[in-house]
Amino acid sequence: AQSVSQHNHHVILSEAASLELGCNYSYGGTVNLFWYVQYPGQHLQLLLKYFSGDPLVKGIKGFEAEFIKSKFSFNLRKPSVQWSDTAEYFCAVIPTGTASKLTFGTGTRLQVTL
Amino acid sequence: NAGVTQTPKFQVLKTGQSMTLQCAQDMNHEYMSWYRQDPGMGLRLIHYSVGAGITDQGEVPNGYNVSRSTTEDFPLRLLSAAPSQTSVYFCASSRQQVGRGYTFGSGTRLTVV
What we know:
- The complex is a heterodimer.
- In chain A, 0% of the residues lie in helices and 52% in strands.
- Chain A has no helices and twelve strands.
- Chain A is globular.
- Chain A starts with a strand and ends with a strand.
- By secondary structure, chain B is mainly beta.
- Chain B is built from no helices and eleven strands.
- Chain B has strands spanning 4-7, 10-13, 19-25, 31-38, 42-51, 54-57, 64-66, 76-78, 87-94, 103-104, 108-112.
- In chain B, strands 2, 4, 5, 6, 9, 10 and 11 form a seven-stranded mixed β-sheet that branches.
- In chain B, a hairpin with a 2-residue loop joins strand 5 and strand 6.
- The N and C termini of chain B lie far apart (34 Å).
- Chains A and B meet through strand 5, strand 6 and strand 11 of A and strand 4, strand 5 and strand 9 of B.
């Protein structure tokens, strides 16, 4: 079975700082990878996804992520965070070709200060 | 509006009571899932369904039942509520080929006292 690790549990940044959130997965085959965001009191929304092709994927709101197969990683980045990026971020993985078992990491709470 | 609808949004139960959390989607998605979200533990899969009449267990199925009689609906039943089931529950759906990722409902916050 697949698993996901997010090592940063709580990150505090000042506005305009750069962001990188780590995500590592464990699975023996090919996977599809996702980052979801959950703003306070809201449900999860898809930020970006990787299926195949260019390992650098761009998502909404200026976020991007890079898939490094050799490191089993899919780190999320943003060059300059805004106060409105305060939220919880979840990395998720699913084996390629199926949609039945999307597995989430434990999440990273991002707090952006003014 | 297209999407995943969950009801109720909030619920307080007494230990031992039973209830059903409702989930409906109008996107004709084949796959539906139930997750629970607890602080520091992310989202954990309770049960999932790959189509009407087909369900399977996820990571934390104990104490919960599901059924999928139609494509649209995927209710989650708590048989005898326990304080350990206090959580936020999310329903999600996806096409078989998960091109757009899962779509999540707005959640049900359940407290068991």
